[in-house]
Design brief:
Two copies of one chain form a homodimer.
Chain A (H helix, E strand, L loop, with lengths): L2 H4 L24 H11 L2 H7 L10 E3 L4 E3 L1 H9 L5 E3 L21 H15 L7 E5 L15 H7 L2 H17 L4 E5 L20 H16 L13 E6 L18 H8 L1 H8 L4 E4 L3 E2 L2 E2 L4 H11 L5 E4 L3 H4 L1 H4 L2 H11 L13 H6 L5 H17 L8 H6 L6 H4 L1 H16 L1 E5 L11 E5 L25 H8 L5 E5 L12 H9 L3 E7 L9 E2 L5 E3 L19 H12 L4 E6 L7 H6 L2 E4 L7 H9 L54 E3 L3 E3 L2 E8 L5 E11 L10 E10 L4 E7 L10 E7 L2 H4 L5 E4 L3
Amino acid sequence: MNAHDRSFFTGTSAVQTPNQTALYRNPTASIQARTRDLLSRMTLREKVGQLNQRMYGWNAYRRTRSGFELTEALHAETERFAGLGALYGLLRADAWSGVDHATGAGAADSAALADLVQRHVVGESRLGIPALFVEEVPHGHMALDGTVFPVNLAVGATWDPELYEQAAAHAAVELRSRGAHLALVSALDIARDPRWGRTEECFGEDPYLASRLTEALVRGMQGNPGELFAPDKAPVVLKHFAGQGATIGGRNSAESELGARELHEIHLPAARAGVRAGAAAVMAAYNEVDGMPCAGNPALLTELLRERWEFEGLVMADGLAVDRLARITGDKVSAGALALNSGVDLSLWDEGFTHLGEAVERGLVREETLDAAVTRVLHLKFRLGLFERPYAADQLATSRTPPAAAAAPATAGRDLSTALARAAITLLHNNGALPIPSTATRIAVLGPQAATTAHQLGDYTAPQRPGTGTSVLAGLRRFAAPGVEITHARGCALTGGDTSGIPEAVALAGAADLAVVALGGSSARTPETDFAANGAAQQASSQMTCGEGVDLAGLRLGEAQYALLRAVSATGTPAVVVLVQGRPYAVPEAADLSAALLTAWYPGPWGGDAIAEILLGHADPSGRLPVSVPRSAAQLPVYYNHKDTEYGAYVDESAEPLYSFGHGLSYTTFAYGPPRLSGHTVAVDVTNTGERHGRTVVQLYVRRLLTSVWPRTLELCAFEAVTLAAGELRTVTLHLDPDQLAGTGTAEIRVAESARAALTAVPVVLRLTR
Amino acid sequence: MNAHDRSFFTGTSAVQTPNQTALYRNPTASIQARTRDLLSRMTLREKVGQLNQRMYGWNAYRRTRSGFELTEALHAETERFAGLGALYGLLRADAWSGVDHATGAGAADSAALADLVQRHVVGESRLGIPALFVEEVPHGHMALDGTVFPVNLAVGATWDPELYEQAAAHAAVELRSRGAHLALVSALDIARDPRWGRTEECFGEDPYLASRLTEALVRGMQGNPGELFAPDKAPVVLKHFAGQGATIGGRNSAESELGARELHEIHLPAARAGVRAGAAAVMAAYNEVDGMPCAGNPALLTELLRERWEFEGLVMADGLAVDRLARITGDKVSAGALALNSGVDLSLWDEGFTHLGEAVERGLVREETLDAAVTRVLHLKFRLGLFERPYAADQLATSRTPPAAAAAPATAGRDLSTALARAAITLLHNNGALPIPSTATRIAVLGPQAATTAHQLGDYTAPQRPGTGTSVLAGLRRFAAPGVEITHARGCALTGGDTSGIPEAVALAGAADLAVVALGGSSARTPETDFAANGAAQQASSQMTCGEGVDLAGLRLGEAQYALLRAVSATGTPAVVVLVQGRPYAVPEAADLSAALLTAWYPGPWGGDAIAEILLGHADPSGRLPVSVPRSAAQLPVYYNHKDTEYGAYVDESAEPLYSFGHGLSYTTFAYGPPRLSGHTVAVDVTNTGERHGRTVVQLYVRRLLTSVWPRTLELCAFEAVTLAAGELRTVTLHLDPDQLAGTGTAEIRVAESARAALTAVPVVLRLTR
């Protein structure tokens, strides 16, 4: 040990050697006492190590002929901090990490890899402190063989928190069964500008819908942990806190110019709900909120989150967000100090947090502040039982509930993924062409999304094994009645203006009874993608028009897609347009030129099955729009819950969206009776007035009348889905949370099938006693 | 007097009869004492009357064969309040008011009309209180024969506060010489979204530039009044307070979602500067700022404006803005109370303020609050000397400085208007085609803006007498050398897709040495325009694509204009494009297809002269962009002073504007030496490196380094124009206001010819001791 190292030994108590009988090792002691005891034994260097998550996890190992070996990089990292706080992305696989089936760990060998790393970390740690393994689980674990679920925007379209909770629970089982611990999940970003490439990661534009789904996520992944997390449950890091959906121009990680009101009413409720539901951690966002980037924003991280909301969990910074603060502090040491002082506990990839020891010595941070952060990291490790069961094998052996999905992972995951996809698909327009009638015996399946699953997955997905998933074409072939002739031509690529494939598609359309035209965008990263240091795509390559870093000004699909649709439509054969997309592209033509239009968002690998089932009428389309669909980028913003200001139309365009938030057709129709109010409960009679069974999402909107601030036109305050047989009537009961109506004297309650429909729905007036 | 009227007599002292020897009538007493005395004599009804400005002024009179007569409407109004507080728009003339040369008052008879009304008001007032005559003076007095100046956006392009101050002084002379008192002038709105139809009313996107011009406006109009305004000076109502330039989607009077930082750094500085310069009044804006419309926003009007800024002037509400508050208060009485309690003194057209007596009686407002507002109205009347000289004739007779412009109004006004137009014209691109060489003896003048002055004027202009002004065609015919053949075809209309006129234009272009193609937009209201109750255009009629209420999503000119430009360009004849416009339209083609491109904004009636002088090289183009020019609406926002966040390009478009804020070419070139710093003074050597004299605007930008909040990329902090002969070198000195750099430790000073150029300019580092 050299002199410099020695200077780190300035902990609050004398350095002690590890002791197997120490309090912190006693599983019967309280976590608080164990954490306090452990902290008191740690050196400054060891403490700083706990706050770091510097390495890209895929650099920690190398595949060998017989398994895995650890790299020098990992050795250097654990030596530097005499252990390791957290390791990001050990199992991450994608074009950026460069990990694929040839180099990475699959379902079969991930636990062994995790245990290999963990054994090394524990061995290098004087006090035997295990590392946290942190993984991306945005819509399924982003690892080889991880089940891919539909993206969040599709989840938003389901309006089905219960189903999503099951999917989240499944993802947690997969994650933990592979030796990882902490799940990074986008949940808090609100989709206010579809130009943003990360729109697909949002549950939609509405704070209430996002809150309900964030709660479901936390419940599903974490269970009801109490002090200890079950071995098949995963603590969640909710991304991103806060306001990232409001960056100007839809530009990734740019500033937001939000006022306090927008921030609190639109962008914070999902975080508040997640914190109340017990989320273990949140990630501070890149963007600036009213003066400072979130990672350097004490008003946000400390005053609001910790003090007002009494959040006791962990705050992680987004990748390299701490180092960015050096732009105004002058160097990375002070950048790290600013982040820690603002409320960040654990950094990601940054250099700044590696110098926290120096920051303490320079007086930039107080050691108590550092200790508080270390306490939160250690606390989470104790809650995970990592000191008792640091290895995946142990975890699984002691699981209280046998991990059903681990027993039959492929089937359970696929079924849940397909169920979510089915529930997400939203029918926007239908002139009667759907469901496909039995008289349609010749179907042409056309378009760049028709015969591939590559673009169904969304961003943040690992490479898939060949043969995984079903395309629209495959789904139709699987589910169509025998004897139906299905033809296919791609017509054009997703991007660019090459129309040379259109004549072939037109010929098939002309010879068919019905054309299914699958259009859309893609977030599929390829090895050619040029990545920024934080893994965001820096330049769109191949056919990428969406995903992190891939923002789009004009919201247009590749021009050839419009040409294809026009040409197919001109044949006179009814064209059903299926959009596979991570944001609402501006496709006003699709409404005019199609016999029916539906959006599947990114439905996941088995989206083709779900789409086919719905096209053929085996399932009722039950998705509802979680975002307003704009006519063009020029009319943005178009969210429904703007202030109650009457917008005159633009001279050249309406100010209203093409399709309203909440909109979605069924194959049957529903009638809603007038709402009946009793206390804070609203009852409404819903009748299936059509000839098929179907599901409607009963949406309760509030329109404030007498109130203390200028109200929004409408606010979604409750929803309840109900499935009814043809002709069936049921009374649906919805509950209002009085907290949502704070500051209001009277308000109208309107129950309808979409925000637009609510504008003309029969209201009932609620009078609140203030 | 009936019982109800009697109930109004609840003033703080007994009702007294008017008394010619009363203190308030004594001109040697202090204004404060006079106001206090007068207030003490007033009934509640009379007080409420002082806060009202309900009538449309043009409804107060009717033209007769021999002059004017007063209407029943005016009689009813003065009877209702036993007098009249203020009268809006007595001299207003436009399509909305329906006033034209046949029905309204021109320069010759306005004073007589004003005096007729004033005599009636004073006669109806028990205490002989004269009315304030309030007029729109956005770019010259919006009355028949009022001199029309270029719109504010053009004024912003001059970067010439001194010249603008002269124009403002001229407008004040015209206003007062016609018997009116108070000038409503747009100055505070910052142009952040060119979709907004009122962009033309903004000085640009930059708070510093807007502040300097707002100060010039106040100085020019008000002079240096001390207690009393000179008879040829006019108190100014600065419009609009605050944040109206940031309404979402560029939608007129919609909410803004601004945070405190954007509000304070971008949208408030011009107001702060105007208040410091002594502005007599501000107008509360329509838009909501973080919870409440400005007229009902005590945080803005009282806490910020009156308490923190110590503003002692008048706060006027925008038209019908008070009544809009009934949306949340439940009725107009409480709406009026909310506005008064928030800080509004004088309403405009509203019913709410007429019920303030009832509001007092219902306990919704305290009489002291009402008294404070009345005091401010009366105070302004005393400062104007209205009690001594209520009539226009008296005013002019006692003018301290003889109103030069009144002596020769047409010439002086026209010269100033033309000078502003000349200074505003901005050359964006020039491949050498300009100035038009003497070898070009055949010039084709084409396009919908070529031969008309109708669209040069902008919104808020009165009907012009036939023959007023010069078009581009007329200007070129006037200034071109003898023997130059000038031909003309319109080619197409401003709006729509009719291309039938293009062949004629192409033929002329083909036969010419040079084509001048005048394109653009229009804010010209016509009798067919459909107006909202507040006078905003409700639907664009005829060729309107800009102006209040005329917001534009796509920022595109009429499609035929693009076709015309393409066709003319295809002839091979060099095409010089002149844009006459009230916002930056998206015309990326103009840069590619033209030999030179310039924007004249709305240059006013004599804009054609100014444009011709510059095209022919009789004057150097010296305008600089006060706004960033976008490539399209899809990439908004594009202002230069965003936070220092590196924007990756959109997939389909750059995130950078087509032309940068501050950009503008000269016919000569300039070289800037490195900046030299001495204290807060920056010196830079500027050399005219070309062969002609010319004017450059030396722009000083600050780029903050070590600072307490996340900085903007650049901030304009000083500018200075300098005119140099060919080859001349001059040292230009700029002064930094240390207040502008609060919270900053070190900053780079960059001096350049545009914001974009500043990004790569040699910096000098300024260290501030904190």
